[in-house]
Fold this protein.
Amino acid sequence: MSLEPKIKEAIANKKMICPTCKKPILKYDKYAETIDSVREGFNIDTVDSYGVRVTLICANEGCAWKERTEYPMEYVLEE
Ligand SMILES: [Zn+2]
């Protein structure tokens, strides 16, 4: 499941909020998905965890906030 369309939609709908200036985040960059496979124990148990890394960029005038995050959806305003 890719998060990228959700990030795009949240930004387009101005629902992703900059924690510094409280205005909508305008851009994102360097979206990447990560998959970690973990093998544990005698009986091989494969755990795949899917994550993302993305740089969120406020880009509002006078605000230099940007953040490389694994949890971009935490910046989305709840309905
Ligand atoms: Zn900002």
About this structure: The pocket of zinc ion is lined by residues 18, 20-21, 23, 58, 60, 63, 65 (CB under 6 Å). The chain has a mean pLDDT of 88. The chain is about 10% helix and 40% strand. The beta strands are 27-40, 45-57, 66-69.
